[in-house]
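Treating backbone geometry as a discrete language has practical consequences that deserve illustration. In the encoding step, the backbone of a single protein was reduced to a row of integers, each denoting a local shape. The amino acid sequence and the backbone structure tokens for this protein are reproduced below.
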Amino acid sequence: MKVLLTAGLWLVATTGGWAAPIPAETLFRSDLVGTVAMAPSGDKIAYTVHDGDDSIQVRDLATNEAVRTIDLGDYPVRSLTWVNDRRVLLTIDILDDYRSETYRVGQRTLTVDITTGDVAVMFETERGTLRRNRFLGRVTDMLPDDPNHVLMPAYSVGGNHLWRVNVETGEAERVERGDDDTVAWFTDASGRAVLRADLTSSRRYVRIYAREEGEEKWRKIRSVRLGGKKDEEERDFWPVAPAEGKSRYYVLAHPEDEEFSSIKLYDYETDEFVETVIEADGADVITALTDARDGSLLGARVQRDRLETLLLDKKAQAHIRGLDVYFENDANVHFWGGSRNGRFAVLYVRSPTMPGEFHVYDYDKARLTYLFDDKEGIDRTALGRTTIEPYMGRDGTALTAYVTHPAGLSEDAPAPLVVMPHGGPEARDVYDWDPMVQFLASRGYRVLQPYFRGSSGKGRSFAEAGYGQWGGVMQDDVTDAVLHLQSRGLAEPKRTCIVGASYGGYAALYGGATTPQLYACVASLAGVTDLRGQLKADRKAHGRRSEVYDYWLKAIGDPDRDRNRLERTSPLSYAASYPLPVHLAHGEADDNVPVEQSRDMEKALRKAGRPVEYHEYEDEGHTFYEWETDIAYAKSLSAFLHGHIGGAD
């Protein structure tokens, strides 16, 4: 094999020809397959196909042939579940066009008879409820003992109530009354509502209420920080599955006196944890695995470098170990449900060089059957290989980073380097598929993702080590990762750029300002540039006494007491003499990091005559909704990198 690496070109000569950069349109477009669900009997699967208009395909697993296609036209499918062996329940997005752009303006849930094609829209007979609810896409309980009904929340006069809905006709009757701020309901094994969550005025916390059997009044038991994210793994307490016994529920919890999160049995009458049910050695449990039909607890997921699945069923757990070995301990194996008798399971397998494959696993025969990929047109020979790189922080702390090497290039050969600190900062990177990383790697860049202190996943102490350390130890850990690669001869400053989004954008800008000798350029997407300005925006949005603002005071600092430090560690303070060329980008409708953070930085840089380019995306928020925006940003970033550190454009 022959490798050519120049300032403007990166190509790999193989026996099959040249591996060209993978187009952004290929990497960032929506998955071809949206979701897959297995029929309760295990003889069929249903899956959604995104190919122009959406459709549902039903496949017979014995013959591996499609038995029915249900065309949904312009209605993208959000989720799909089998109600029984004859009928599937799905949630669809309602779209509308405005000024030549298409927007999601609502959701509806319906069921389809796969034999006849008959459709029933949930709440179809409740016209007033349909009008009041643009989004009707959540199912609280599939009611396994009542195959004709499901429980769904919907707003009506007086609040967000819980309704029993007929899956054959769509008729609905209210069974529980909620408040205007109620956002979630939780039921026991019999379908009785026992817990509920109400959103606070800050929109960043929920209050959990409980009600014992025979009681009418709800009682507040917990206040839970959402942290701006919707996934349960970002919360310190969240109900996940009903448990046996009076006033018992399984919860995903991270008590303040415990280092790692775990699945616990919780008594909501006494507000006490009864026992720890699932825990992991040295890592957080991030999500619970539950049965799609009855909601019972099956196990949990643990995010180490790769995803680890822990099942309560020990025999099933042995199969999991075997599947990890089958995929050479190099992939993340996700369980997407299975048959009611427990014989079959749907698996989704993904790794840095595997965009995603669906399989069916037969427990009885220990046999894996490939179904299909969820992406098309990706040349896997052009994908970069990811390694886990240990390194040492300057204070002696053992750290790791994920390093993705350009395809066809030796792991010890030099290449242009892109340093990508993640956002959050209480978040993390993982050993998994990442379209932006592969977009860069296919253009000849080595990509470094440091797992710095302040990140999540390694316990409470590791995350809290980043409190008050914006521009401090978190930045040092990023810097030390770069120095480590440079010491190994894998990077050099004149061909290194630091790139990040949100907190990562802050780290990129601050790193370029204070350690310019390490980099040739800087790129920030929705990055914080003025720490006191960001705190002011958080205080205005959530209130001086809000739990959200209290969190950011701990994480960043007090705008009055820590004024000097915050100004000293704000990238905006360095704009007048900023030493490197800068690429800025921001969503105009960002309600997390205000767009003014990037606008002010651009204005200050231009006023000082410093090299900067700025891209603002209309109607986009903190993360991009439209995949076309992802493509536009990736292309502008690629051109910027190409102009300063080489690589293919």
